[in-house]
Write a sequence for this structure.
């Protein structure tokens, strides 16, 4: 019988990057100890494990830390290659396409979310919201390109790009809740809207994604933190 | 007879991101057609190959485009897995570490460098320099950790992190003239200083990196948009 891996994940429940890693672990069926972190009061373990960035997620395998969610997801895919479905596709070109869009999401979506939440003026917020609409438009095209008419970015079942985009759906719901803007709607992004519904119904999403009100609470706490920081400048 | 394997690289001579791809192609011993792009008058080929970002580098392999330098590097390593040396380590943990440092270089080094180069005010420039030097110091530690006393981040031979940082070398060597500070020095970054010497001596570097003097002149006259 294979021994349980010595695997810990340091995370924060509403972080899309943490959600992404938890989904990857779920896809592979790998048991691990999840340790929720307080990002306003970082633990010794977090600071030791992620000395450069001091961020979550950090995967600690046999005592060795792996940081950065795209690196962690690929690590999980490689170490547990023989277990569960593949997270990245097998073909090098398809892997390149998946990595390209993952980088796009990370470069554009999360910053637009932070920008919207952090905006000091209505004008700034509108600008960030428009940026987010542009990103979603681009991802709608990406979905058409990648899915080839199937249910998910990766085809018949979820893969790397599904979790890379899907982990951010919670943030879009936060923005909807706080500002009344719908970023994934059947009018403007019909393919993504249908995909988001299917994605939300997967085991991975059900297991790992917290309720939107938890995320809204956290967003408000973060906004207060930014406001306090700006006030002391 | 095997079919033609066609590689085309769209780039600009000054771009460090393009240099990265050239380095990888040379290290793998791959032949390719290089097509210099005019970014002020973008070609149809560039616009159709990279509709999302409209940037270089783009590697076109048998007609299929791959964009973003780090995506291209991993692609080259995987599509040509049995050709030439491996660019990424084979061990999954070491691969994760390499990917971490490449992302670090992209996220943390370039922005303060640009600030130091383009800043109008003295205060902004000083802040850019300070941040850049802090990042360089962290990379000194990374080199120590990754190389384990060997010549490169990749160990005995050039690897993914070496290429990612190496692509920026002409800019790093021009930093004193462009930003007013040396990025590497014997007191603070002895390992990196030695690494620079080794890397620039490589055949691949001589082909892939632009001439520093030419680059510095160009950057100065154009306040270069990288």
């Amino acid at each position: 019988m294979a021994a349980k891996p010595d695997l810990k994940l340091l995370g924060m429940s509403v972080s899309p990057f943490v959600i992404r890693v938890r989904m990857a672990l779920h896809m592979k069926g790998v048991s691990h100890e999840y340790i929720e972190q307080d990002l306003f009061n970082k633990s010794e373990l977090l600071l030791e494990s992620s000395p450069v960035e001091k961020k979550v997620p950090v995967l600690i395998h046999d005592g060795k830390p792996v940081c950065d969610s795209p690196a962690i997801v690929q690590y999980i895919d490689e170490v547990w290659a023989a277990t569960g479905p593949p997270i990245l596709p097998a073909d090098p070109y398809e892997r390149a396409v998946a990595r390209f869009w993952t980088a796009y999401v990370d470069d554009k979506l999360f910053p637009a979310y932070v920008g919207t939440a952090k905006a000091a003026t209505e004008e700034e917020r509108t600008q960030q919201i428009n940026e987010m609409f542009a990103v979603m438009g681009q991802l709608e095209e990406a979905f058409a390109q990648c899915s080839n008419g199937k249910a998910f970015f990766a085809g018949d079942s979820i893969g790397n790009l599904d979790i890379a985009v899907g982990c951010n759906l919670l943030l879009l719901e936060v923005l909807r809740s706080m500002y009344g803007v719908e970023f994934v709607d059947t009018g403007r992004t019909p393919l993504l809207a249908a995909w988001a519904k299917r994605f939300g119904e997967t085991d991975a999403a059900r297991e790992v994604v917290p309720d939107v009100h938890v995320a809204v609470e956290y967003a408000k706490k973060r906004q207060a933190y930014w406001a306090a920081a700006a006030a002391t400048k | 007879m095997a079919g033609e394997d066609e590689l085309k690289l769209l780039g600009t001579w000054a771009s460090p991101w393009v240099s990265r791809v050239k380095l990888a192609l040379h290290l793998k011993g791959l032949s390719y057609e290089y097509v210099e792009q005019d970014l002020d008058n973008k070609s149809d080929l560039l616009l159709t190959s990279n509709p999302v970002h409209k940037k270089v580098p783009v590697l076109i392999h048998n007609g299929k485009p791959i964009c973003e330098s780090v995506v291209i590097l991993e692609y080259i390593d995987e599509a040509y897995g049995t050709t030439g040396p491996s660019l990424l380590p084979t061990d999954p943990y070491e691969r994760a570490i390499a990917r971490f440092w490449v992302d670090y270089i992209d996220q943390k080094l370039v922005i303060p460098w640009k600030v130091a180069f383009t800043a109008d005010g003295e205060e902004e420039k000083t802040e850019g320099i300070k941040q850049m030097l802090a990042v360089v110091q962290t990379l000194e530690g990374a080199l120590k950790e990754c190389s384990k006393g060997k010549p490169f981040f990749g160990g005995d031979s050039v690897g993914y992190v070496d290429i990612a940082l190496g692509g920026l070398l002409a800019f790093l060597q021009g930093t004193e003239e462009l930003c007013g500070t040396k990025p590497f020095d014997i007191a603070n970054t002895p390992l990196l200083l030695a690494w620079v010497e080794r890397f620039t001596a490589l055949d691949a570097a001589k082909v892939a990196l632009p001439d520093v003097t030419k680059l510095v002149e160009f950057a100065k006259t154009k306040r270069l948009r990288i």
Observations:
- The two ends of chain B are 42 Å apart (CA to CA).
- Chain B touches chain A at residues 52, 61, 64, 66-68, 70-72, 74-75, 78-79, 92-93, 95-97, 99-100, 103-104, 138 (CB under 8 Å).
- Chain B has two domains: 7-80, 92-224.
